[in-house]
Amino acid sequence: MRRTWNNHGGDGGVTELGPANLGDATMYKLTAIFLILLATPVDLAVAQASDAETVTAVNTASDALDEAFTVSDADSIRSLMTTDHVTVTPYYDGPQSVDDQIASLPDLKFKQTVVGEPSVALLAPDVALRTFIANLEGSFKGTPLPSRVFVNETLVQHNGEWLERFYQVTTLKP
Q1: Who contacts 30 (Cβ-Cβ below 8 Å, separation ≥6)?
Q2: pTM for the complete prediction?
Q3: How many domains is the chain partitioned into structurally?
Q4: Do 164 and 143 fall into the same domain?
Q5: Which of 93, 94, 64 is nearest to 81 (CA)?
Q6: Cα(43)–Cα(87) distance, integer angstroms
Q7: Is the domain of 32 the same as that of 66?
Q8: DSSP bridge partners of 14
Q9: Do strands 161-171 and 81-88 pair parallel, antiparallel, or not at all (unpaired)?
Q10: What CATH number corresponds to the domain at position 157?
Q11: 59 & 119 share domain
């Protein structure tokens, strides 16, 4: 069944819509768009499936940053974050920059244990989203840290190194 459209041109005529009225150029464009859309998910799946080295590098960089916080190593913390890094946690007084976090190191007693395996999704060749559940021990300004949390990290690759750009902690029920 063909769809029709009344052209309201006053002559009472009806114009049929269909491949015959689209023209060859339009049909080629539509075919090209369809093929691109069809191929895109396949390309993304292949890229994600073959990036085990990238996932390992992201996990290694993140683990090194966690260790730097555990031992209050300001130089390592600064080297493992982007200069425009932002952290949002339930224990800080609000969003924190790298400088804010380093300044607050004397107030932070931090130990994190990741529960299970972190999940890493490659959002682009140089952007990764890492999420996991963790148990925290320690305190900030004398107030105990939440014991069970969900962590969301965004890392970006800069000059061949994976650096954390964003870090967010959400408290979970124990």
Answers
A1: 22
A2: 0.70
A3: 2
A4: yes
A5: 64
A6: 33
A7: no
A8: 6
A9: parallel
A10: 3.10.450.50
A11: yes
Average pLDDT over all residues of the chain: 81
Predicted confidence at residue 37, as pLDDT, reads 46
Structural domain including 35 reads 4-49
CB 162 within 8 A of CB 51: no
- In the beta sheet, which residues pair with residue 94? none
How far is 8 from 14, CA to CA, in rounded Å?
A: 8
Residues 69 and 106 in one domain: yes
- CA–centroid distance for 85 within its chain: 14
Rounded CA separation 72/65 (Å): 10
pLDDT for the residue 110: 87
Q: How far is it between the farthest Cα atoms of the chain?
A: 84
Where is 5: in which H helix or E strand?
Answer: strand 4-6
Contact 127, 58 (CB under 8 A): no
Q: Can you tell me the distance from the alpha carbon of 135 to that of 149, in angstroms, rounded to the nearest whole number?
A: 6
DSSP state of 82: E
56 and 138 share a domain? yes
Tokens at 46, concatenated: 């292949």
**Residue 66 and residue 38 share a domain:** no
